[in-house]
Amino acid sequence: MRDNDFKTSCHHMSTCALTGASAFFDAIPRSFMLINGPLWCYFYAMKYVEDYDASALRRFHCTQPEGNALVYGTEKDLLAGLEFVKANFTPERIFILNNCSVSLVGDDIAGIADRAELPCPVYAADCGGIAGDFAEGYEIALLRVIKEVKKNAKAKSNLASPSVNLLGLSPTYFRGEEDIKEIRRILETAGYHINAIPGGGSAWDEIMELPQADLNLVLRDELALKAAKELQAEFGMPFLSVGMPYGIAGTLRWLDIINTALPAKNTEAIRQEAETVNARLQFRSSNMQSLWGPLWFDNILIAAPPSEAAGIAEAVRGEWADTGNLVIHFTQETPLRPKAATKICIAGKDDAAMKETFENWTGGLVIGSSLETSRLVRLKKPFVNCNIVLPSYHEIIATDLPLCGMRGAAYLFERIWNAKLNGCMGEVKSGC
Fold it and tell me: Which regions of 228-287 does DSSP assign to beta strands (E)?
């Protein structure tokens, strides 16, 4: 693995390609994941998924190949693993996920699975080949499933129209399950039929119906843009790269883009909801400003994957807060360059500039994960924070509130204001 790939995966996303593929396949109900690799890789991927899916432990198993397997192959270990699954579980399908080193062996996974005589279909995916992060693993898994969609393609039927697929969503992201529900709620309220959300909870049969939709919506380019292009080439399906909807005005712009490409009948209902929510937030903001002054931060740092970082940056600076300096640390390469940003750094590419952000920090709002806040703690820098991505080690959230959409706008507004107020109270205490 290249040094930059390792740093990006382990220090920014904290996950590898095997974990991304595991998260995608785990989100397909009644699926079983057989990790063809060492226990470390198995526990790493399974534990990450288990943080949002308590049943993950009952749907993961590991082959634990012997030390010479990289030379002689993993057939013996894989057959033993499949036999264990057959004897103890009744999944509807099994996904064999080769870890990065086993991916280099070149075993005939399909042939080995045939000899196991399993009562359910088995699918294989190579996760990374000693490279890759969560996004690349998710992409590998999605493209692998699209191969099955091609095999099972049917003539297009008369679905409820307008119908869309949502590509690039995952419950494993921070507030991921809640964001999926909010995006679905907004689109269905506007009049769209949600055909399938691969990797976001849709059943296998629903995913096989991907070509039946009128339009593919790509919510995260790094997870699903390649898959959308594949579906366009194979089935002639149009797609829109729309990103994630953050903030009230941002959500309305997002919906307008979709509605322009594929009109719906009830977008006015979302506009009315937006007016109601915005009036409430403005009222609350006015009350707090009269006591504590405007929602101002000398500096704002946003560190997150591209869709989160870009969308939240525009919402925070365009709708709620003001700042003298807004810096974005993207965790993946992206062409996104939001106008709200004063400076943009990309992990693995601009690491020296990212280091300077922390070393020169003089105080302000950090919107990211525990990785950023712990670094500032070690440097003894002042800050207030609002977590928007994983890992989040220093708080617990047990509500069903999303980060995106209308409900997410109120939640983010609340958290950012409370971050400011916590900072104000800290100044009051230190002055006593």
Answer: 239-241
